[in-house]
TrEMBL record:
Organism of derivation: Halobacillus yeomjeoni
Keywords, alphabetical: Aminoacyl-tRNA synthetase, ATP-binding, Cytoplasm, Ligase, Nucleotide-binding, Protein biosynthesis
Organism superkingdom: Bacteria
Subcellular location(s) of the protein: Cytoplasm
Gene Ontology cellular-component annotations: cytoplasm
Xref: Gene3D superfamilies: Arginyl tRNA synthetase N-terminal domain, HUPs, Isoleucyl-tRNA Synthetase, Domain 1
Protein family according to the UniProt entry: Belongs to the class-I aminoacyl-tRNA synthetase family.
Major localization class: cytoplasm
Keyword Protein biosynthesis part of the UniProt annotation: yes
Name listed for the protein in its UniProt record: Arginine--tRNA ligase
Signal peptide: none
Length: 560
C-alpha cells in the first residue's frame, strides 16, 4: 500500500513520460534502515530533466506527503521515506489477524489453471537427487500458485518407457534374480542395469539384445510386458514411500507409456501439416528457422522417442485441462528438449504453445561432477532422508526426551532439513551434494525455523495468550524490523511465483526468524507491562512463519 501511494505521488510529479509501473519498480528498500523504509533513486531521471540527481531528489521530496509517511528527505540523489510506524504496524496486524488464512494470498490467478509436471522419476532406477529437486521445487511452486489464486494440477509423469527398458529386460534375462528383486527392487534393478553397461563395453552384442527386447516391448510381447509391468509396480511402491516421507501428493500419476497408442495421431498431425521430414532413415521436424537442431520424432528402427511422447502428452493435457500455464519442472540439461517441444507445437499452430514453460533447475553435483545411474554414481534419496530423520531423533532424545510424538516430529524435522537445504538456493544454481550440510540443524536451516516457531508457541502458551486476546494497536519501536518483514510477506509470495523460485520465500523466512530472534533477545516479553502487545507480535510472527513453511512443503511441529 505505502509503495503504491509513493509511486502514485511520484508519477504525478514526474508527468506522463514515466509510467506508474516503471516508477513503482524503481522503488527500493534501503540497505541501511536509518536511511528510511523506502527510497526512490533519481539517477536515471537526470538526463530527462537535465538536472543533477541531487537537485531532483530535493525538489521531489518537498512534494511527497501522506499520513502513512512520517518524514520525507533527500540524500545523495535518493528520495527517502520514513513510514509512520504506528499506522503501518496496526494496518499490518489488522490485515493479518482479521483473516490469517488470507494473509499472503492474491487474486490475480483466480479462475486460471496451472498444470505442473514435477518429480517424474524413472522406474527401475532409484529415486535420484535430481528428482528430489524437481519434486520439492515443483511442489512449492504449486503451493505458491495456489496462494496467488490459481488452481494447480500436479502431474507425475513417471519415466516408464524408452529404450533403456530394453536394456533392463536384456540384463534381467542374463543376470536377474527374482527373489532378490522382490526383496530390494530398486537396488537390484540398478545393479543389473549398471552391469549391463559395464559388460556392453566389452561385448557389443548386448546392445543388440537390448534393442531386440525393446522391440518386443513395443510390440506388446507378453513376456516383455509382464516383466515391465512388474518392474513398474515395484518401483511405484518404492517411490510412494519417498512421497509419503516428503508429504507430497499428486493430482495425477501418469507415465510416459500411457501415450504409446496415442502417438500415431501426433505423427499424423505432423504429416498433415507437412512438418515431418526423412533424415538418415529417421523422421524429424526441422527447426532451422528457430536456430535449433531438428526434433527427432521417430527413429530409423521405427521406435518412437521421448519428444514424441512429450508432444502427445502436451496436447492431451491441453485437451483435458485447457491450462493457462503449463510448467515443466525439469533439470536444465533438458532445456533444448523443451525448446523443441514448444516450437514444434507452435508449428502445429497451437495458440497455447506459448503457455508452456520449462522451469529449469541446477544439477545436484557430487565432488563437482554430475551423478549418473549408468555408472552407478547416485546417492539414494531414501537413505539421505532416513539419516536426516535419525539425526533429528537423536537431537530430540538429547534435548527433549519427554516429547510426545517423537517419531512424527523427527520425520518433520529431518525431512524439513532436506527440503529446505534444496529450496534455499536459487533454483537455477547447481547444488553440491553434502550430507553434512543437509544434516546441519543450525543457521540457515529448516530446523532453525521450526525451532523458532516452537519457541514462539511456547511463549504464547506461557503467557496464556489466545487469538481473541490479540491487541489491536502496538506501539513498540523495537518491533519495527519484525513488522516490516511480516508486512513484506505477501509481496514476496507474488515475487516467488512470478519467478517460479521458492528460494525467495526460503530466504524471507530466514529474515523473519532473524528479526524475531533479535526482537526476542532484546525484550523481556512475559514480564513486561505491555505483555499482551508483545505476545500479539509473537503470535503474528508464528502465523506467518507457519504459513511460509507450509508453502515450502515443510511442516511445523508445535513442540520439539
Ligand atoms: N523422467 C524424465 C527424466 O528423469 C523427466 C521427465 C520430465 N517431464 C517431461 N514431461 N519430460 O529425465
Amino acid at each position: 500500500m505505502e509503495r503504491h501511494i509513493f509511486a502514485l505521488q511520484l508519477s504525478h510529479l514526474l508527468g506522463e513520460s514515466f509510467s506508474r509501473e516503471w516508477v513503482y519498480a524503481q522503488i527500493e528498500i534501503p540497505k541501511q534502515e536509518t536511511h528510511g523504509d523506502l527510497a526512490f533513486p533519481c539517477f536515471s531521471l537526470a538526463k530527462h530533466f537535465r538536472k543533477n540527481p541531487k537537485d531532483i531528489a530535493e525538489e521531489i521530496s518537498l512534494s511527497i506527503k501522506h499520513d502513512v509517511f512520517d518524514s520525507v528527505s533527500a540524500t545523495g540523489g535518493f528520495v527517502n521515506v520514513m513510514l509512520n510506524k504506528k499506522f503501518i504496524t496496526s494496518h499490518t496486524l489488522k490485515q493479518l489477524l482479521s483473516e490469517p488464512g488470507e494473509f499472503g494470498t492474491h487474486s490475480f490467478g483466480e479462475g486460471k489453471k496451472v498444470v505442473l509436471d514435477l518429480s517424474a522419476p524413472n522406474i527401475a532406477k532409484p529415486f535420484s537427487m535430481g528428482h528430489l529437486r524437481s519434486t520439492v521445487i515443483g511442489n512449492a511452486v504449486a503451493n505458491l500458485a495456489e496462494k496467488c489464486g490459481y488452481e494447480p494440477v500436479k502431474i507425475n509423469y513417471i519415466g516408464d518407457y524408452g529404450t533403456q527398458f530394453g536394456k533392463l529386460l536384456a540384463a534381467y534375462q542374463r543376470w536377474g534374480n527374482s527373489s532378490l528383486i522382490k526383496e530390494n527392487p530398486l537396488h537390484e534393478l540398478k545393479k543389473i542395469y549398471v552391469k549391463f553397461h559395464q559388460e556392453a563395453e566389452k561385448n557389443p552384442d548386448l546392445i543388440e539384445e537390448g534393442r531386440q527386447w525393446f522391440k518386443r516391448l513395443e510390440h506388446q510381447d507378453e513376456e516383455a510386458v509382464e516383466l515391465w509391468t512388474w518392474f513398474k509396480d515395484v518401483s511405484l511402491i518404492e517411490f510412494n514411500k519417498v512421497y509419503q516421507l516428503l508429504g507430497v501428493a499428486f493430482d495425477l500419476t501418469r507415465g510416459e507409456a500411457y501415450y504409446n497408442d496415442k502417438m500415431e495421431a501426433t505423427i499424423e498431425l505432423l504429416k498433415e501439416n507437412k512438418l515431418l521430414e526423412h533424415s538418415e532413415g529417421a523422421e524429424v521436424v526441422r527447426l532451422d528457422e528457430e536456430g535449433l537442431p531438428p526434433c527427432l520424432i521417430r527413429k530409423s528402427d521405427g521406435t518412437t522417442i521421448y519428444a514424441t511422447r512429450d508432444l502427445t502428452a502436451a496436447i492431451d493435457r491441453y485437451q483435458t485441462y485447457a491450462f493457462d500455464e503449463s510448467l515443466y519442472v525439469v533439470g536444465h540439461e533438458q532445456t533444448l528438449h523443451f525448446q523443441q517441444i514448444v516450437h514444434v507445437l507452435k508449428k502445429l499452430n497451437f495458440e497455447w504453445a506459448d503457455r508452456i514453460q520449462h522451469i529449469p533447475f541446477g544439477m545436484m553435483l557430487k565432488d563437482g561432477k554430475k551423478m549418473s545411474t549408468r555408472k552407478g554414481k547416485t546417492i539414494l534419496l531414501e537413505e539421505v532422508l532416513k539419516e536426516a530423520i535419525d539425526k533429528a531423533r537423536e537431537n530430540i532424545e538429547e534435548k527433549n526426551p519427554q516429547l510426545e510424538n517423537k517419531d512424527e516430529t523427527a520425520r518433520q524435522v529431518g525431512v524439513g532439513a532436506v527440503i529446505f537445504h534444496d529450496l534455499k538456493h536459487d533454483r537455477r544454481n547447481d547444488v553440491e551434494f553434502s550430507l553434512d550440510e543437509m544434516l546441519t540443524f543450525e543457521g540457515h536451516t529448516a530446523p532453525y525455523l521450526q525451532y523458532s516457531y516452537v519457541r514462539a508457541k511456547s511463549l504464547l502458551e506461557k503467557g496464556g495468550f489466545t487469538s481473541s486476546s490479540a491487541a489491536a494497536e502496538i506501539d513498540d519501536p523495537e518491533a519495527w524490523s519484525l513488522i516490516k518483514t511480516i508486512r513484506a510477506y505477501p509481496e514476496k509470495i507474488k515475487m516467488a511465483y512470478e519467478t517460479y523460485d521458492p528460494s525467495t520465500i526460503a530466504k524471507h523466512l530466514l529474515d523473519l526468524a532473524r528479526s524475531f530472534n533479535q526482537y526476542y533477545a532484546k525484550t523481556n516479553i512475559v514480564n513486561s507491562h505491555n505483555k499482551n502487545e508483545k505476545l500479539t507480535l509473537v503470535y503474528a510472527f508464528s502465523l506467518v512463519l507457519k504459513d511460509g513453511l507450509q508453502v515450502l512443503g515443510i511442516e511445523a511441529p508445535e513442540k520439539m
